[in-house]
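Journal club prep, notes for RB
We'll compare a predicted complex against what the paper describes. Inputs for the 5-amino-5-deoxy-1-O-phosphono-D-mannitol case:
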Amino acid sequence: MCGIVGYAGPDRESSRGLEVVLEGLARLEYRGYDSAGVAVVTGGGIATQKRAGRLSRLTSALQERPLPGGSAAVGHTRWATHGGPTDANAHPHVSPDGSVALIHNGIIENYAALRAELGEGGAVFLSETDTEVVAHLLAAEISTAGSRGGAQALAAAMRAVCQRLEGSFTLLVVHADAPGVVVGARRNSPLVVGLGDGENYLGSDVSAFISRTKRALELGQDQVVTITADEVGVTDLDGAAVDATPYTVDWDADAAEKGGFPWFMAKEIHEQPRAVADTLLGRSDASGAMTLDEMHVDPSVLRAIDKIIVVACGTAAFAGHVAKYAIEHWCRVPVEVDLAHEFRYRDPVLTHRTLVVAISQSGETMDLVMAVRHAREQGSKVLAICNTRGSTIPRESDAALYTHAGPEIAVASTKAFLSQVAACYLLGLYLAQLRGNLFPDEVATLVAQLRDVPDAVQTVVDAADEVRELARELVDSPTVLFLGRHVGYPVALEGALKLKELAYIHAEGFAAGELKHGPIALVEPGVPVFVIVPSPRGRDQLHAKVLSNAAEVRARGARTIAIAEVGDDAVLDHADVVIRVPAVPTLMAPLVTVVPLQIFAMEVATAKGYDVDQPRNLAKSVTVE
Ligand code: M6R
């Protein structure tokens, strides 16, 4: 939530800082798009511009009233928490004396007490935000210390103020007396450093500066960073120097462009075969044996685990739900799936024999960060399945299994889901191999089947026309239902979530067998019901049971749309429309059956004229609890 960019360069007159920051904001707008603002340290002080609404409103304002050049600049794109999306609440916030401009991502939980304290001293606030108090505190700290705002003084003030703050924050500050300097701090919210040639950058994530450099530094919890054109210094809150971890970003700026697609989401749907293939790459050897080198958890610990709890939010939790079916089947170990925000508060039973698997695209979802900390405090091992290197969740976990989906920019998760599911299969197969639940030839067969899945996904992605047509037909439906059993159940939940978040249509996913226990009352003539039909070659009469459920809703007038395997003729008697997907093993079916539902949601939203990449009220990365 909220995108943050900082720039420090050599030239006090140049407009480059502002250009870099605006380009970074354009790449970070997916993190929040309620308002945007910039500040530049010019020869004459600090100049700011900010606007409620999309970034385009800020850029228009800057065309009408350009800001002077400067060697330090910061920019912010907001997802509102405290105070509505207005010009006044947009960041940067400037201290009363005009010396300090500050941007913030996160929530200052003790802001009310700080605001009251400052108010007693006569402070007047111009916004309703929790952030503005920090601008006041920083300016007061510098003035009390009796020093002008050079780099050292600014960093010292930041350290002192951070000691007083509670909650989560990434803060970037510039000072009128510190040209060419940006100071940042982070606690529970993301901040990375970009190392340039003769200039340096800060960003909520590397996409802020990916077109300038691929060299980055990870910052840890409660660290303060000072950047100038030539130097980067990191300390803890006591001022002790810290060695930040350098890394190289393994994707380039093209990956964060639309590449000719109308939406990032469309591009990301098309990237799914590659995302799955790249996630599988190098994780098994030529004989089909699993080789998860990054599993830095002692094999004896993994052999001894007696329970797995998958923790995640939203789409990532549905990936975890698929994992439950696969891991329990392959490894014969119980798997629970928990929403991260429920996990900590239900006092889960965690022991040193519990493996907690934390799934997150961004690696910054605050509910999940807290769940990871809780699990480790209880002595459980935590494995992160994550798409973002250097992010908080893998950093704070015992081990990380990275998905290689590349940057996901659209707020609605697509390729991240497929690559998370693929990573969960890898984990399941690795554990089954290690614990001896599957014979080596069984593992090899499953690995080979998994390697074939990207081609099957490609087939579905290429056959979007029918789904597009269906979307146009159903665009005005007030309610859409989704049914599935077994691994089709989380797919139904994901299909409903996609439609809700993109097309703002009431949509619900159900376990198909649950229908007759209540939800079937929602079915009335004409209501569209998607049915995820399992393979007729599968076990346990799953196929027949789901067809019965399809028949039940159809008998009540529902417009029944089946997602079914090629060659499944039995489905024709129970569906008004059949969307075909290639045959894959039952446990791997979510990787193909979810794709038409993603395309459907995107096409309905497009037909309604909505912004597919930036749906209302949402942000890509949910860094507040
Ligand atoms: O970055 P994460 O994977 O931790 O994000 C989790 C959810 O916020 C995310 O999957 C969300 O549900 C998506 N918008 C769904 O499309």
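Talking point for the session: The chain has 18 helices and 24 strands.
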